[in-house]
């Protein structure tokens, strides 16, 4: 039986196309429809039939995608039949990737043979059968029976058995509703991600204060004053155990939740979990059950400092300024603008992005109650709340595909250079205009380098730590891509020392730069991005341990005489310009007397660019240009050329800001300044502990409640024109990490003039709003342990139809594609076998044999041995196929650069000093003598069980040698 499991595991690793009917190989596989059906038309799975079916399909081949579809469908159908027949029992605990909240739905998924319920497979099969029978074969019963007999030749000739065979075939093979797809939709993701079965949360309802207060008054009639009313409420809760659904209990609990929940009903904070005076400034919205309210009133939950009737009166006074009148104040209720007078937290911002004027403007939705508890959603759960089984799929994808999101700014090549040109000659000519002269060249240089200066000097730098501003995780570099303005600003005046606040938009026509905003994740199997982009980013993340592989901007005061004419021209010549070209540049932007004009700024920027170029010129530093250089770009290098053409994995990229994860490199379309988005979470050294997966049921429930409150508040924000803009800032605020580390010396500071970055007012206002929304965003999908993984998930949840997302990615859709066996991109198509093998355990032993024994009706050793012989070797190959493709892609790049150098170095007109010869070879060692390939595969960055990597030198690993994320 283990051998059979090996075969199933093997074939489920093959990528597949859309599910086809079993008999699709027309003329080659006769009677194949009957292989897995009894003569009564029931589903029958045995090893002999599996072997026969495989032989008829000639085994696994690249053009035989149906094999995996069929196998997954057989397995899923077998599982559902075993569950129906009580041979297989689903786990009741949420562990090992299982979500027990869908047990009942899975147990009822198959249905009975005569079902008309289209929520079941038999119900769908009956609908399909009747549609065909009553349309195409209407009034033609003989034709209908003949069709079934021809389709299922091994089944008895009576109509009942033939129609039974039709239903069985539907469950095994329908392209949209087969057993595998339906089981996948329940456990993982639907093809439309939003329609998936999310983690079960708490049901809520819209809050209508007028209705609520009227119902409350009806529940407590005739109370003449506040004292009587408060006493009646206390008495009701003292007796609540007899009827938790009493209107007296429900209406008061609803009012508590309408004010934000129990923990926020205090004007003091002496015992509120160490929150200090901050409780007066803000609140965190929570959901409280009637049992919570009872505990609060009885004093067993007195964390906020007030008990019993005193606390009840505080609640009533916040709902109505006339609460002293008793019941009538609520039967005749009108909004009381009492937020400030009733000690409303001064910084709190509500769902409408406004400071409340009334305590009844805190939330738009409140939780439903049931028998004293919060009412759990029994069906689909709350969109965005990742279930345990969805987490299983995401974790596998995260670990195996290693997805990265990045922001990419590209400064276009000068002088009409193309990718083909720089394969032959990568010099400063690609970055500095040389084709004009005189005033025209002066203007071109100033205009081009205004933006380059602002980015390299300021945008890539850290904020002054002493003046750090709360920005909801936005960095200065981010403001090029997202936030209120999302553009590059620069000093476009003639004065080189203009303050940031006077900067204006640069390059409005996009002549000099472009933004790479494809919205596609970078992954190991991705083929969208270039090799330079892909391997530079992964190498920076996992193997960058060269302390000297950094660059920072140098101000005019620290460059000594390098801006003087002779030294400046020599730097340009060393970088590949001719004597004449260097002289033209020098003349076009001559230094002014006070060195404070736009020409001086351009000159300083070109000097800095030349220094940066040395770090990313794709030449080994030992064979590149020397400081002495040469007098002509066509002359030989004064440095030995013996190592030209030899790859040293050097000078491909350099680090501009280690704290923010910003690097620079040159690709076929220009100079890239690239930021790893969310890098602060990867690089958060203070937050790298592994988390225990042991969480008790009550803790789980508490997390669900808190998470539902967060998701409902986000939904409330979407519904407000004033507040929908806050959602991306709210999600992004997880990047606002307070760390003890200071800016690394290798990162450019950008603070030499003492000026503070001029954040836009709206960005700061929005950041301040999300800080005070009463929403603890850290609670969203807290069950995802890896901080970076959770950032990718939560970012993907933003509804781009309702607000403008900061990052145009969707990792959930990618995961959904990866688990669909009918998709050529299926990277986890074996998840069904692995999940059930992992979760179904018997006294510590995986129930692989027991699982298959309830699915497969026979166990013929000869057949199993033959199956194993056919597929065991293939299983090993398939297991590493994705990694092989990565290696092959990398080595193809290595060889391309090598052959390119060999080809062009024979051209006497080209200077070997500027023919690229460097590449990142995954088979090479980094400075720590660790193989880059191993560092990448074992990086803790992509370990779902670790919050953040233990160190930030890019070489940490888990020690886990698995090549993929499978169990």
UniProtKB/TrEMBL annotation:
<protein>
    <submittedName>
        <fullName>Putative lipoprotein</fullName>
    </submittedName>
</protein>
<feature type="compositionally biased region" description="Polar residues">
    <location>
        <begin position="643"/>
        <end position="652"/>
    </location>
</feature>
<feature type="compositionally biased region" description="Low complexity">
    <location>
        <begin position="621"/>
        <end position="642"/>
    </location>
</feature>
<feature type="signal peptide">
    <location>
        <begin position="1"/>
        <end position="21"/>
    </location>
</feature>
<keyword id="KW-0732">Signal</keyword>
<feature type="region of interest" description="Disordered">
    <location>
        <begin position="619"/>
        <end position="652"/>
    </location>
</feature>
<feature type="region of interest" description="Disordered">
    <location>
        <begin position="944"/>
        <end position="967"/>
    </location>
</feature>
<feature type="compositionally biased region" description="Polar residues">
    <location>
        <begin position="949"/>
        <end position="960"/>
    </location>
</feature>
<keyword id="KW-0449">Lipoprotein</keyword>
<dbReference type="InterPro" id="IPR054816">
    <property type="entry name" value="Lipoprotein_mollicutes-type_CS"/>
</dbReference>
């Amino acid at each position: 039986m283990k051998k059979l499991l090996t075969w199933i595991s093997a074939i489920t690793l093959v990528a597949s196309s859309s599910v086809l009917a079993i008999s699709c190989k027309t003329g080659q596989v006769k009677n194949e429809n009957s292989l897995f059906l009894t003569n009564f038309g029931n589903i029958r799975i045995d090893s002999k039939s599996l072997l026969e079916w495989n032989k008829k399909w000639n085994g696994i081949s690249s053009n035989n995608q149906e094999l995996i579809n069929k196998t997954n469908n057989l397995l899923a159908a077998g599982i559902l039949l075993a569950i129906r027949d009580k041979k297989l029992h689903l786990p009741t605990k949420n562990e090992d990737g299982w979500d027990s909240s869908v047990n009942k739905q899975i147990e009822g998924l198959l249905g009975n043979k005569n079902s008309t319920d289209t929520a079941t497979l038999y119900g769908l099969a009956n609908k399909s059968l009747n549609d065909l029978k009553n349309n195409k074969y209407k009034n033609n019963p003989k034709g209908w029976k003949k069709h079934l007999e021809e389709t299922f030749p091994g089944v008895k000739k009576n109509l009942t058995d033939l129609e039974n065979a039709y239903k069985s075939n539907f469950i095994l093979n329908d392209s949209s509703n087969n057993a595998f797809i339906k089981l996948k939709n329940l456990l993982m993701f639907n093809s439309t991600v939003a329609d998936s079965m999310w983690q079960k949360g708490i049901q809520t309802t819209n809050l209508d204060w007028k209705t609520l207060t009227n119902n409350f008054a009806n529940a407590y009639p005739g109370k003449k004053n506040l004292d009587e009313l408060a006493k009646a409420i206390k008495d009701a809760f003292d007796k609540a155990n007899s009827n938790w659904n009493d209107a007296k209990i429900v209406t008061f609990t609803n009012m508590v939740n309408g004010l934000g929940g129990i923990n926020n009903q205090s004007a003091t904070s002496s015992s509120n979990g160490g929150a200090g005076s901050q409780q007066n400034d803000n609140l965190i919205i929570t959901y409280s059950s009637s049992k919570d309210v009872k505990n609060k009133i009885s004093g067993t939950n007195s964390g906020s400092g007030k008990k019993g009737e005193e606390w009840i009166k505080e609640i009533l006074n916040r709902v109505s300024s006339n609460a002293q009148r008793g019941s009538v104040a609520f039967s005749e209720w009108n909004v009381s603008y009492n937020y400030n007078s009733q000690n409303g937290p001064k910084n709190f911002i509500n769902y409408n992005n406004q400071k409340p004027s009334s305590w009844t403007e805190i939330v738009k939705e409140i939780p439903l109650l049931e028998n004293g508890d919060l009412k759990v959603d029994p069906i689909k759960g709350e969109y965005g709340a990742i279930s345990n089984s969805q987490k299983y799929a995401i974790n596998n994808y995260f670990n195996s595909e290693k997805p990265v999101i990045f922001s990419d700014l590209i400064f276009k090549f000068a002088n009409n250079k193309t990718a083909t040109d720089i394969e032959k000659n990568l010099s400063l000519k690609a970055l500095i205009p040389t084709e004009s002269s005189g005033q025209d060249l002066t203007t071109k240089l100033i205009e081009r380098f205004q933006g380059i200066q602002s980015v390299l000097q300021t945008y890539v730098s850290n904020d002054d730590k002493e003046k750090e501003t709360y920005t909801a995780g936005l960095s200065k570099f981010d403001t090029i891509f997202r936030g209120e303005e999302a553009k590059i600003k620069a000093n476009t005046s003639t004065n080189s020392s203009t303050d940031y606040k006077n900067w204006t938009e640069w390059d409005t026509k996009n002549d000099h730069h472009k933004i790479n905003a494809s919205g596609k994740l970078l992954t190991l199997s991705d083929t969208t991005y270039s090799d330079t982009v892909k391997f530079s980013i992964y190498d920076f993340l996992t193997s960058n341990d060269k302390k000297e592989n950094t660059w920072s901007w140098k101000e005019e005061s620290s460059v000594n005489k390098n801006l003087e004419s002779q030294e400046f021209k020599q730097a340009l010549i060393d970088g590949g310009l001719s004597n004449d070209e260097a002289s033209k540049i020098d003349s076009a932007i001559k230094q002014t007397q006070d060195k404070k004009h736009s020409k001086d700024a351009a000159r300083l920027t070109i000097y800095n660019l030349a220094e940066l170029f040395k770090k990313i010129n794709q030449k080994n530093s030992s064979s590149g240009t020397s400081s002495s250089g040469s007098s002509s770009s066509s002359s030989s290098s004064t440095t030995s050329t013996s190592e030209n053409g030899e790859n040293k994995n050097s000078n491909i990229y350099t680090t501009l800001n280690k704290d923010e994860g910003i690097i620079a490199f040159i690709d076929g379309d220009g100079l890239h300044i690239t930021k790893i988005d969310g890098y602060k979470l990867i690089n958060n050294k203070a937050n790298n502990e592994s988390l225990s997966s042991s969480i008790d049921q009550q803790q789980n429930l508490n997390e669900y409640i808190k998470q539902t409150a967060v998701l409902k508040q986000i939904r409330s924000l979407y519904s407000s024109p004033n507040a929908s803009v806050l959602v991306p800032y709210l999600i992004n605020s997880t990047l606002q990490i307070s760390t003890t580390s200071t800016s690394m010396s290798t990162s450019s500071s950008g603070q030499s003039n003492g000026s503070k970055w001029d954040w836009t007012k709206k960005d700061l206002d929005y950041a301040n709003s999300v800080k005070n929304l009463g929403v603890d965003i850290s609670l969203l999908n807290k069950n995802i342990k890896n901080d970076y993984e959770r950032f990718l998930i939560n970012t993907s949840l933003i509804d781009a139809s309702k607000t403008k997302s900061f990052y145009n990615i969707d990792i959930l859709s990618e995961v959904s594609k990866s688990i669909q066996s009918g998709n050529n991109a299926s990277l986890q198509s074996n998840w069904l076998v692995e999940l059930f093998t992992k979760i179904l355990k018997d006294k510590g032993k995986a129930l692989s044999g027991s699982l298959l024994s309830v699915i497969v009706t026979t166990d013929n050793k000869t057949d199993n041995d033959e199956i194993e012989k056919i597929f065991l070797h293939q299983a090993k190959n398939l297991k590493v196929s994705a990694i092989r493709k990565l290696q092959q892609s990398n080595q193809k790049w290595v060889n391309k650069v090598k052959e390119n150098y060999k080809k062009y170095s024979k051209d006497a007109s080209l200077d070997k000093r500027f023919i690229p010869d460097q590449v990142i070879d995954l088979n090479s060692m980094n400075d720590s003598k660790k193989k880059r390939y191993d560092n990448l595969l074992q990086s803790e960055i992509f370990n779902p069980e670790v919050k953040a990597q233990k160190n930030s030198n890019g070489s940490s690993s888990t020690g886990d040698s698995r090549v993929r994320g499978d169990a």
